[in-house]
Amino acid sequence: MIVTVTPNPSIDRTVTLPGRLVRGAVHRVQSVTTEPGGKGVNVARALALAGLDTIAVLPAGPHDPIVSALQFSCVPFYAVPIDGAVRTNLAITESDGTTTKINEPGAVIEAPALAALTRAILDRAAAARWVVLSGSLPPGIPDSWYADIVAQLQSYDCKVAVDTSDAPLAALAAGLATAAPDVIKPNAEELASLAGVDATMLEESLAQGNPDPVVDAARHLIDLGAKTVLATLGAAGALLVNDTGSWLATPPPIKPRSTVGAGDSSLAGYVRADVGGAQAPQRLQMAVAYGSAAAALPGSALPSPAQIDLDDVAVTSISPFPAGSTPAPAPPARP
After folding, report:
1. Which neighbouring-strand residues pair with 317?
2. How far is CA 171 from CA 180, 222, 286, in A?
3. pLDDT for position 319
4. What local confidence, expressed as pLDDT, does residue 106 receive?
5. Average pLDDT, the chain
6. Are 291 and 265 in contact (CB under 8 A)?
7. Does pLDDT of 263 surpass 70?
8. What per-residue confidence (pLDDT) applies to 320?
9. How far is CA 315 from CA 139, 234, 252, in A?
10. DSSP class of residue 12?
11. Does the pLDDT value for residue 326 go beyond 80?
């Protein structure tokens, strides 16, 4: 069982334009899609498409539109009842794949609902192989909540991944010494913030073919206690760093159509590969294959296994490595 947790779920409405978005102009929409969303829900959707046993845990009222949307999409879920309505997020996608997101704050989560959500996670973690905690935190949930959940899961026999940003990510990083998830998935900007470096510098170094500053930034989190850092880097691919080595995976050339769900798909690919017994470089390869496939799809569509091409993702072992360690090979794998 893979449990995904989305404390701030959403109905994701994606509007596709035939050209560029121009501020103040009138636009004619090419297409509109609406899907149940939120980062953890997206991970669960991608895993369900791959036939994995998964359940999406989220707060939502029994008659909320996201409940019927999840039922329609055949994604197993457990909804903790709340009084407010799940938010609706808008993504505007241009013809070159550039995506502008307008996200609502989400429904307020009162203390009883938060306690019920925490219990729902811990109850399901007892039989889980992975617990994936994803997304922003809505009003009513403290910034430390992800860190608190990770600490409580330390005694459970499951792996934990966290994909969040801003204050919740900072709170998680502050507690890495005593309660570290198995995987943290920042993007380049989030990684730069945690490491105290300039995000533009990281992006420029990647553009110049030098991944070392990004490795150093990820290694900073490893030094703080993180077990594995999966840094998604957009068109540059993704970087994986753990205590045995560092790997960079570059994606195949694609025509980007929408970045909605691409990072979530990457994390789903990583978890899918891990469940299949893949080693670190192979997990990275699967992550980038999933992220690239998602970016090539329209709207908020997520890739199925038939749309994943591992052979087009190149994985390279890079330095630095801890003293005495040996880089692991990166053979192709199809878990």
Report:
1. 247
2. 11, 16, 29
3. 65
4. 93
5. 91
6. yes
7. yes
8. 47
9. 40, 15, 11
10. E
11. no
- Residues 285 and 249 sit within 8 Å (Cβ to Cβ): yes
Number of Cβ within a 10 Å radius of residue 271: 28
User: Residue 235 has what DSSP assignment?
Assistant: G
Q: Which of 216, 264, 274, 309 is catalytic?
A: 264
DSSP β-ladder status, 314-318 and 87-93: unpaired
Residue showing tokens 């390279």: 316
Token pair recorded at residue 267: 């994390």
Q: In whole angstroms, what is the distance from residue 52 CA to residue 274 CA?
A: 12
How far apart are alpha carbons 141 and 70 in whole angstroms? 23
**What are the beta bridge partners of residue 11?**
36, 88
One-letter amino acid at 104 equals E
Q: Quote the pLDDT of residue 10.
A: 96
Distance in angstroms (rounded) separating the CA atoms of residues 313 and 145? 35
Does residue 264 carry a catalytic annotation?
A: yes
Mean pLDDT, to the nearest integer, of 159-174? 96
Residues β-bridged to residue 163: 134
Structure tokens at 39: 């980062």
Give me the count of residues in the chain.
335
Lowest mean pLDDT among 14-28, 37-51, 112-126, 306-320: 306-320
3-state percent helix, strand, coil for the chain, nearest multiple of 5 = 35, 20, 40
Query: For residues 138 and 144, what is the distance between their CA atoms, to the nearest angstrom?
Result: 12
Q: Which two tokens stand for residue 253?
A: 């050339």
Whether 269 and 287 have beta carbons less than 8 Å apart is answered as yes
What number is the average pLDDT over the span 262-279? 96
Residue 325 has pLDDT above 80, yes or no: no
Contact (Cβ atoms closer than 8 angstroms) between residue 78 and residue 119: no
What ranges in the chain are assigned the alpha helix state H? 39-49, 65-73, 111-125, 145-153, 166-174, 188-195, 199-207, 212-224, 262-275, 280-295
Alpha-carbon dihedral sign for residues 221, 38, 101, 146: negative
The CB-side HSE value for 296 (13 A sphere, CA atoms) comes to 16
Tokens matching residue 104: 């609502």
Q: Is the pLDDT of residue 270 over 90?
A: yes
Angle between helices 199-207 and 188-195 (to 10 degrees): 120
